[in-house]
Amino acid sequence: MSSILISGASIAGPTLASWLAASGWDVTVVERVDHLRTEGQNVDVRGVGRQVLRLMGLEDAVLAAHTGERGTDFVDERGRVIAAFEGGADDTSGGTAEVEILRGRFAAILHEHSRESVEYVFGDQIAGLREDGAGVDVEFRHGPARRFDVVVLADGLRSRTRSLVFPDARVEELGLYTAYLAIPRVEGDGERWRVLTCGRGRALYLRPDNVGTTQAGLSFVSDVRGLDRLGHDDVVAVLRATFADVGWVAPRVLDALDSESLYFEAIGQAKLPSWSRGRVALLGDAAYCASPVSGMGTTLAVAGAYVLAGELTRAEDPRAAFAAYERVLRPLVTKAQKLPPGAPRIAHPRGRVQQGLFRTAVRVASAPLVNRVAGVAQGWTTPLAEAIELPDYRMPV
């Protein structure tokens, strides 16, 4: 029986763990946090990601945990709708996808699906890796050293563990910061994702959830790097100063910034020439983060885990499996990482002229005739989330 250590218990890691455990592998997942992280904002799963959920028998469970979001509205400073887009009703379409779920709830579903056949170790992390060609010796921060046949690092865009194997890996910064938090739900929050572009490179949104709160986000473009490394109090001060003059629901969101749910990040992409070295591979955001701007992060994580599991089960040498995994998935990743021209700054206009042009553009795009034409055009092209055909690995689930 082959053994594998997976670092990271969010989305990609447990998906890979499920497939490999069902295929007879001895699977261990290590997570540096001492509990399953149930917090997090909305994520969606599209195209090939939906196909993987069906194969795992999890599509109904994920659909049942839908956030309740029904579409997207762009609003003005008084909260009046200036452009409305309905949610998707198929595997791929819509700013709001048919599969829209809180990240923490999705992680919990994947954990529940795999926990009886996978060893989960919470509150520890990899401290050292040494490969000798036949296996990988792993040192942990707290637990005893262990040996595995294969190690996969699935612990995020800014993975510290990745630097043990890929010391030269760098994040391609997009110049965008985003703060996420859950705020108390009030009457009138509704069932739609509401977005306000605030000028001066800022945007604010509210999104519904199915746990009795409202998900909020504050984002802004900046040429200053390193703000994500500030402490909590300094981050709160930056956000309050940046959005102090914004109307609509901004005061309500700023008042809630002391919430324990606040998460602040610098948005970037991971573009590595290779996703593996020897018997160690990268998966999900650690390998090929496309950023939330792409709308493809969760889909790439789920599809990538399926492909990696399939190649590991069919190859005798993990290095051959890693090469095949990259060959199959790289075309989808390359397309996902090609963001719309001007993104993310185009959606965060700075001046009044840019603000006016952006609002005119979304109004036109939301017009019924334009939507009908776009629907016809979509039938002539392959949607991005379906840009590759998943191999049939015939793995047990």
Detailed description of the structure:
This protein is α/β, with parallel strands linked by helices and 397 residues long. Helices cover 32% and strands 25% of the residues. The chain is built from twelve helices and 18 strands. A seven-stranded mixed beta sheet has the order 5-4-13-14-15-12-16, sandwiched between helices. It has a six-stranded mixed beta sheet with strand order 7-2-1-11-18-17. The protein has a three-stranded antiparallel beta sheet with strand order 8-9-10, with no helix packed on it. Helix 1 (12-22) runs parallel beside helix 4 (103-114). The two termini are 17 Å apart. Residues 372-381 have low confidence and may be disordered.
Please outline the helices and strands.
Layout: E1 3-7, H1 12-22, E2 26-31, E3 42-44, H2 48-56, H3 59-64, E4 71-75, E5 81-86, E6 100-102, H4 103-114, E7 119-122, E8 126-131, E9 136-140, E10 146-148, E11 150-153, H5 162-165, E12 171-184, E13 193-199, E14 202-208, E15 213-221, H6 232-242, H7 250-255, E16 263-270, E17 276-277, E18 280-282, H8 285-288, H9 297-314, H10 318-336, H11 352-366, H12 368-380
Parallel strand pairs: 1-2, 1-11, 2-7, 4-13, 11-18
Antiparallel strand pairs: 3-6, 4-5, 8-9, 9-10, 12-15, 12-16, 13-14, 14-15, 17-18
Helix pairs in contact: 1-4, 1-9, 2-9, 9-10
